[in-house]
Design goal:
By secondary structure, this protein is of the alpha+beta class. Helices cover 16% and strands 32% of the residues. It catalyses: L-arginyl-[protein] + H2O = L-citrullyl-[protein] + NH4(+).
């Protein structure tokens, strides 16, 4: 409820005031002192009342103090209020101190009784509503005097999609605050980070004018109600405003004429360099439409909340001395928006598009790999997008370059690609090729240092929805890799970490990945969908599981079966040799301890049980202080629904089959998954990467609405 304005009455002449529909006004009937609970309201309201009287044609009073004096008959003890039928009169009092009168009895002229009036419809003419206050010495006496108040009711309201239904509806409740949850309220603003005009070279938000009428669909509608006598708006103005800090984060457009059919019919009225706008109201115009776009995502210095206000201002028109008084806002209505966060999608969401790069190096092209990806995408009913060499400049690591996500409001949703600070051969691809109509773009730049390996987005993942104790994460939790706590190792850039945390809806968890040469979380973990109630499993690379498997095969008499059989350019290693290799075993024990530390973090931060984790056999070896996969890293897979594109490990062949592949099938296929092993050795593994690093998947957004959660 907005603060009540107060109006002071006079016995000598009528008082004229403007009353806003739905806003309560305090009628001051007291002789001296202040009415109950009106200390601040009365003083502030008296100033507004003075301006209202002056604008209605009254002569300027000789002295402000004289005007503010309480004008009540000297011997008055009681009073009575009567009003036009369209004026609602409420007597506000303390029942512990005042007894409500019955019959024809009058109210006591007591500081504990306030007169509050309101109206629910706009006036047709100026001063067409009346309130009369009569003063009495005793209950049966003739009145000692009367005060007349003439009101003009104006309907002013700023409305947005506070109910989050996709439509603007009139809202008389709390519009100034924004609340999370299914019962919450407050409108949502999309960052207008797509490019709706194909002729444009930059995102729509970078331009202060519309570039396409389609751009309006990305914006949140706003409706300003301004109903009342046209003459009233000759003496009052409506001003739309935004704070200086919020002006950098939101831009508001207005059509020059209702239902504009050209981009030139729209002009920006609020935003950077424009903190206020005097609304141009046409005769008889009752509703004026605006639309708003977000200019930046939540970040370390921005909570995501912005507010817009409309003010009804008395201009004190026609008075030669009016410059002595500032313009007085008689009423203010404020609405709150939250900028929609950027949301990642986990492997459990259905795949829509699979991105890969066509490259050529000393070993030739990766055409065989592209064919394998095409077959995998066909099985998963997923579109394949191949980035040609001219666009990737022979950079195949498309997962490291970017991450797909989306933004959503009740009226619109579209995908947004997050461009990493990595900036190698693929650095222009997200901006020049993915940014397009209804496909947005966001990035964070490193201003004072170069990017490290951990800033690549192979080091960025997200879990499926999880519950941790009593806390639900219906959109999952972001996972990033960094150094061991309290150590001085490598971490993802702070500007990226801050951005991810500021989105609020997928609270990040930092894992320990600095033990790896490349340092990415996708080298030791992945998520796969399942059809059971849990809905997913976590796959963790496990040197211990691999050594146990090899030991079992040795005991079964297959100790001479060799790793890397069939690879002419790679030295074969028998199971016996690998088990006897003290350095390889010690390296594996070290790596297992690093993965086990992450295992505990995942169980704690994602609410996992041991049965939710599957150990995938995988050996690592140390190159200096950092670990690399000893054979193609099977955890570094691409997940397309139930179809898994897994790096072919070239494990020991036993009875005509790779024992590593057989073990992985045994672990995953009972869950309804299809394991498809793909030869990526020359194209990817020898370059310290695998299939996940060389692919990227855009997935279907969550059905769950982010504004329904409570972070």
């Amino acid at each position: 409820m907005a603060p009540r304005r107060a109006v002071q009455l006079s016995l000598k002449k009528p008082t004229y005031a403007v009353c806003v529909v739905g806003a309560e006004m305090l009628v001051n009937v007291h002789r001296g002192g202040r009415g109950r609970g009106q200390c601040r309201v009365c003083v502030a309201g008296a100033r507004g009342m003075l301006s209202a009287k002056l604008s209605s044609g009254h002569q300027r009073p000789r002295d402000l103090a004289e005007h503010l004096a309480r004008d009540v008959p000297r011997d008055a003890k009681t009073f009575r209020v009567s009003a036009s039928s369209k004026v609602e009169v409420l007597m506000a009092y303390d029942p512990r101190r005042v007894t409500e009168p019955t019959g024809k009895a009058h109210w006591p002229l007591d500081a504990n009784v306030d007169v509050v009036i309101s109206v629910d419809t706009a006036s047709k003419d100026l001063n067409d509503l009346k309130v009369k206050v009569s003063y009495f010495k005793h209950q049966e006496d003739d009145p000692l005097g009367h005060s007349m108040l003439y009101l003009t009711a104006v309907d002013v309201s700023l409305d947005v999609d506070s109910s989050r239904t996709g439509k603007v509806k009139r809202h008389r409740g709390d519009k100034k605050t924004w609340r999370w949850g299914p019962e919450g309220h407050g409108a949502i603003l999309l960052v207008n980070c797509d490019k709706d005009s194909r002729g444009s070279l930059e995102p729509d938000l970078n331009r202060s004018q519309l570039v396409s009428l389609d751009d309006l669909q990305d914006m949140s509608p706003i409706v300003l109600t301004c109903d009342g006598p046209d003459e009233l708006f000759d003496r009052h103005k409506l001003v739309l405003s935004v704070s200086l800090s919020d002006s950098r984060r939101v831009r508001v457009f207005r059509a020059r004429a209702p239902g504009g059919t050209s981009i030139f019919d729209y002009k920006g009225v609020l935003g950077p360099q424009h903190l206020s706008y005097r609304v141009e109201r046409q005769l008889g115009e009752r509703e004026i439409g605006f639309c708003a776009e977000g200019l930046t995502f939540p970040d370390a210095d921005f909570s995501g909340l912005v507010s817009l206000s409309v003010h009804l201002v008395d201009t004190v028109v026609g008075m030669p001395w009016h410059r002595a008084l500032p313009e007085v806002p008689l009423f203010t209505d404020t609405v709150a928006f939250r900028v929609a966060p950027w949301i990642m999608t986990p492997n459990t969401q259905l795949p829509l598009e699979l991105y890969v790069c066509s490259v050529t190096d000393a070993h030739g092209s990766n055409e065989k790999f592209l064919d394998d990806m095409a077959n995998l995408a066909l099985k998963a009913n997923c579109k394949l997008v191949i980035c040609p060499r001219v666009e990737n400049r022979n950079d195949r690591w498309i997962q490291d370059e970017m991450e797909f996500g989306y933004i959503e409001a009740p009226h619109k949703s579209f995908p947004v690609v997050f461009d990493s600070p990595r900036d190698r051969g693929l650095r222009d691809f997200p901006y020049k090729k993915i940014l397009s109509p209804d496909f947005g773009y966001v990035t964070r730049e490193l201003l004072f240092s170069g990017a490290s390996s951990l800033d690549s987005f192979g080091n960025l993942d997200v879990s499926p929805p999880v519950t941790v104790g009593d806390t639900e994460y219906p959109l999952g939790r972001i996972l990033i890799g960094g150094s061991f706590p309290k150590s001085s190792g490598r971490r993802m850039a702070k500007v990226v970490r801050d951005f991810l945390a500021a989105q609020q809806v997928q609270a990040p968890v930092e894992l320990y990945s600095d033990w790896l040469s490349v340092g990415h979380v996708d080298e030791f973990l992945s998520f796969v969908p399942t059809s059971d109630p849990k809905g997913f499993r976590v796959l963790l690379a496990s040197p211990s599981a691999c050594l146990r498997l090899f030991q079992k095969k040795k005991e079964e008499g297959y100790g001479e079966a060799a790793q890397f059989a069939g690879l002419g350019h790679k030295v074969k290693r028998s199971i016996n040799e690998m088990l006897a290799d003290r350095h390889l075993r010690n390296d594996s024990f070290h790596v297992q301890s690093c993965i086990d530390w992450n295992r505990d973090v995942l169980k704690r931060e994602l609410g996992l049980a041991e049965d939710d984790i599957i150990d995938i056999p995988q050996l690592f070896s140390l190159k200096g202080a950092y670990a690399e996969a000893f054979f193609p890293d099977m955890v570094n897979m691409v997940v397309l629904g139930k179809y898994l594109g897994i790096p072919k490990p070239y494990g020991p062949i036993i009875n005509g089959r790779c024992c590593l592949e057989e073990k992985v099938r045994l672990l995953l296929e009972p869950l309804g998954l299809h394991c498809i092993f793909i030869d990526d050795y020359l194209s990817y593994h020898r370059l310290q990467g695998e299939i996940h690093c060389g692919t990227n998947v855009r997935r279907k957004p969550f059905a769950f609405k982010w504004w329904h959660m409570v972070p």
